[in-house]
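Just wondering, does anyone understand what follows?

——
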Amino acid sequence: MIYAPVVAALIATLALLLARAFLGPNVFDRALAANAVGTVAMLLLAVIEFYTGRPGFTDLALVYGLLNILGTVAVLKFFRVGDLGEPGEKEEEAA
């Protein structure tokens, strides 16, 4: 089977990325590793789809990818601004 080495390589990549996420020198390296974990999870779902022949995993991979992007943006905004409810920099109103 050709899928076994691909799955093994993706799981090894996932393990290395998780190590990077826990041991990263700063928060942005950890966020990048978490984003890459989501991308590898999407690839793993695609390989499972091809292996099992079930087309429903494509939808799961796409939804997971969209949630991965939104989660990464939210985490980075939280670490930059400090609150997810604030719109960011407030401009001075010219009255």
Notes: The two ends are 71 Å apart (CA to CA). Residues 88 and 94 are 18 Å apart (CA to CA). The longest helix spans residues 27-52. The chain has one domain: 3-81.
